[in-house]
Every structure is written in C-alpha cells, then in structure tokens.
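User: We ran a pulldown and think these components assemble together. Before we commit to crystallization trials, I'd like a predicted model of the whole complex to look at. Sequences follow.
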Amino acid sequence: MTIIDPTDAVPAPRSGDGDKTSPLLEVRDLHVEFKTREGVVRAVNGVNYSVDSGETLAVLGESGSGKSVTAQAIMGILDMPPASIPKGEIRFFGQDMLKMSGEERRKLRGARIAMIFQDALSSLNPVLSVGFQLGEMFRVHQGLSRKQAKAKAIELMDRVKIPAAAARVNDYPHQFSGGMRQRIMIAMALALEPDLIIADEPTTALDVTVQAQVMDLLAELQREYRMGLILITHDLGVVADVADKIAVMYAGRIVETAPVHELYKRPAHPYTRGLLDSIPRLDLKGQDLYAIKGLPPNLLKVPSGCAFNPRCEKAQDICRTDLPPLVPVTERDGTELPGRASACHFWKETIHG
Amino acid sequence: MGRYVVRRLLQMVPVFIGATLLIFLMVNVMGDPVAGLCGERQCDPATAAQLKREFGLDRPLWQQYATYMGNVFAGNFGTAFNGQPVTELMASAFPVTIRLTVVAVLFEIVIGIVLGVMTGLRRGRPVDTSVLVLTLVVISVPTFVTGLLLQLLLGVKWGWIKPSVSPAAAFGELIVPGLVLASVSLAYVTRLTRTSIAENRRSDYVRTAVAKGLPRHRVVTRHLLRNSLIPVVTFIGTDIGALMGGAIVTERIFNIHGVGYQLYQGILRQNTQTVVGFVTVLVLVFLVANLLVDLLYAVLDPRIRYA
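Assistant: Here's a predicted model for the assembly, 660 residues in total across the polymer chains.
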C-alpha cells in the first residue's frame, strides 16, 4: 500500500515522471448503496484499487458486480439520491474527491478524469452535431470560441482516425457507423488530455473486428498521453491484450487482484477460475463449455459469508459464515507475489492445488 | 425538402376541398338562407323565388359550391346580409384574434415550459405534486367557468381589469383573456414538458453531458431541454390553429370582436357567407400550421429527413 501525504491538498498537475508520492487514483474501502422501494441495494461493499499514470487496470465482473457503479462513483455522476456513499475515499493525486465541493468535482470531470461509455449511439446527444459535442469540451473548460472549438474538434477527429474529419464535423451521431461513433466517444474523453480515463465496456456494442480496432486505438492513445486507464469489461479476451493488472469483482467486492498474465496462468479465486474455464477454447472443441452454475446474487440479500459460496464448488462451512478478507497471495514457500491478492478462504488450494 | 413541401401542399388540396364542402353542406342544411331576409314575417313566394334566383340559390348545390370557391380564390368571400363584405369583417376580426392567440401562445410557452421543466427535474417532490394537481384542476374546469370567474373577480369585484375588452383590443387588454384561452393548453404543455424532461433526464446522453463536466444549467438547457421540447413544439404548433378558431367562448365572455365573435354572430343570424368564409380561412390556417410544425420537426431533430 502506498503512503499518502495528507497535506497534499490540491491535485498536482499531471507529471509524466517526477514526484510519485501518491498514485494517480486510489479507491479506498468504497461503499455505495441505493435506496429502493424493496430495500437498500448494496452495490459496492468496500472496494480498494489504485491506478498509476500510464497504467491500465482492468475491472472484471459480471453484470451487477458493481464495476460500473464504482466507476460512476469515481466520476461523480451517480444520481444521489437514490445512491449514497456511506463510506470510503476516492483519492485523486492524494486528495479525497468525496470531500470536494460539487463545483470542484465538476471542473475535474471531463478535464482531468474522463469517461467512455458503452453504447455510443445513446450516449451521444442525437440532436447535436458531433463537432458541437466535441467542441463543447473546449468551450466550457477552456473558454474557446465556437470557431476555435470547431477547429479543435476536427483535430480530435483526425487523432482518432475518422476519415474526412473536416467534412464530417457537422454530421450527427446517427450518420456514423458504430465503430466511428465509439471513436468519437474516445475523442471526447481524450479532448482535454485527462490524467485518467475510465472506459466502461467500450467495445461491447461493436462487432469483433471493430472491437479490436477500437481497443488498439485506445491503447495507443493511452501510451502516447501516459494516461491512467480503468477498463471495465466482462470480456476476458479484451483484457489480456491491453491491461497491466486486473481486479475481479463479485457482488460489490474485489475478490482477486493480479498482474494480467499471472491471473490467466494461476487464478487464486474459484470465481476467477470459473470465468477462465468458461472461455471457449480451440483445443477443447466438441466438449461442453464450462459454465459457472447459478446466478449472480441479489444485491438486496447478499449471501452471508463469502458472497460466492452458493455457486462455489469448493465451498465449506466456513464460506457460509465468515467473510473472507482480501489477503496477499504468496508462493508455496511464502515468497510474496507482488500485486496479488485473493478473497478466498481456500486461496492456497486454488492457486497451488 | 423542397419536394416534400410540394407534396404536402398538393395533399392539402383534397383536404381543403373536403373540409370546405362539408361546411358548405352543413350550413345549407341549417335552413333556408332566404328565410332570414324577410325579418319576422314569412317571405311571399314570389319575392323568395326572385331572391333565390338573384343569389343563385336555385341552382344545384355543387354549382353553388363551385361558384363560391371560384369567388373565394378571386378574393371575394361574398357579402354578409347586412351588406358588409365578408372580407371587411375578416380584416377587422383576424388581427384581434391573432393578437389574442399570440398572448395565449406566449403564456403556454413561458409558463407551461417553465413549470414543466421545474416539475420534471423535481419529480415526486412537493413542487411537482402541487403543480400536477393544479394542472388537473385547470384541465377539468371548463373554460367558461375559469373565464367568467376571472372576469367576475378581477374585472368586477377587484376592478384590476376592465371586464370587457374595447373594440381596439390592444395587447394590454388581452392579457387575462389570453390566459383564460391558454389555460387548458398550458396545463397540457406543463404535463408534456414534465414527462419529457423526466424521461430524458435519465438518458445516456444526459449522463455523458454530466460526465463532460458541463455546468448544470448547460446540461439542462443545451442537452436536456433541446431534446425534451420536440414533442412540446409539435403540440404548441398544432394548438395555434385550435386557439384561432376555438376562442368562441373566451371572445364571448370578454366581448372581444374577433373571429370567434363573428362566427358566433354568423351562426346565430344564419349568416351563411360569414360562417363559410371564416371557417374556410381557419381551415387554411390549420393546414399551414400543421405543415410548419412538420417542417420544424425536421429542424429540431436531425434524425428526421424528408425526401
């Protein structure tokens, strides 16, 4: 765990290298709940993760695991109420964003932390031209004129490789193909060269060939600007190529963290193992595809103990009573595995057995 | 776009002919137009026949209609039985009603949309509930009740306004009548805007606008309002036609000498030429207003393209 300097009041401007007192973003023990008519939905129950400049963290999980809610809490775009954050810290350059005023947070949004949404067609305003929507970033955050903003918008569209950018700047979102629209979303997030980009399933709505193009573009731009990237996905294939480290979420908690290739080689949590086993593989052609049995838990009534216990093949009595903490994972001989942790009572058996 | 307009204009022709023919027939069924000419007494058959021949009323109905429409397109709407050309009545009545409509539409736009946005953004809160109840009351109470009540209170009891509008019918005098005329539509505009805003507020593009770090007022005006007003504009556009012709009650209450007043007089006195003439113009107003709304729709929503 990195030590945070509490006197570091204002987020420092982006520094490529230089002082590294605190990570770019650090989420600590974050809780998010939604008050609904049926009761309190505990969507996020104590999430910890951190991202550094130039680093890509993939957050993996099924629908309803709390990965998007965590991201929206970081962006500060949760509807509060019904959502509330009873506990936790979200530190950006060491400063807790949850303690900032609404106006301070607004100034960070888009300029320092940007987000790419899943479905670009519905996430772009249908009645405004893409040039207007891109230019708006410069007009609002930098006070540029309409004309300057449009020039910047064309530049951005060129950056994300949209053909004939100057001719298409006045077109509307529905006039672009799915891949081009997602590029526009990326361009919008990139506009002010933020320190951190959160991409919430950026390729889910695209077909496979376009998915690869869009991911490559995102990875390329991230390297170029040395941005931190949080990639939220349920697609293990996407993760392997671009991520540096992975956090697996289940029922609003992180159940395993690991550097990307380690995770694929030796998962330390039965849930991660289940996810990996359910990837179709060429060498197992003709056999039945593995599937994790059961359904993700109802967040109104999370099972006691380990939330995964009703679906886990290795579940014992302790799993139904005691909540496993996220503990560091070590080699058999006790050597530490940097960056690895698992929230399973039987992580030793899972990784080594 | 040009071809679309031409096609729409051509489509108007059968609608126009159908509507005017219906009115023409209905007015003719209403009674013998000559009967009213001789006052209380019954006309003697010779005079009646002579008058009928003079006005062309002895010819078949379709011929009468053709002659009438021919005259209308030459700018001649005939004469009312008091000898005044109908066009003269129109020249005095339409400006008054247009002023009244403008006042009413302004009320709809300003109050309706402001209330709609306020309640749409605060759904379920006390403001929302009270405005919702208020609109329900306005919608359920007939215009003549609201009109007479306001006239009685503001005009007679408290003396804030003159209970009856002068023949000049300046804008200042039309504020209260305009509010009465607008009241029901205003309530609908409020509810329509509220629903539209509340629905779009949860949309993905509004979330994107917030994530871009736009100030709240910009999110609301540029992103939320722009999309939410499309159905409202359509409603207000179609309502203009309805307001112009539907002001009979309001104009009667406040004694405004506009289109509604003239129509009322025309029907009361079996003044065929006046009724048919005014309604013909109203049909045109309605058709043009509808066309303009459809064109405006394409301007507001770029996804709609007319070919």
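Residues 208-225 of chain A form the longest helix (18 residues). That may be worth checking against your pulldown data before setting up trials.

User: Thanks, that helps.
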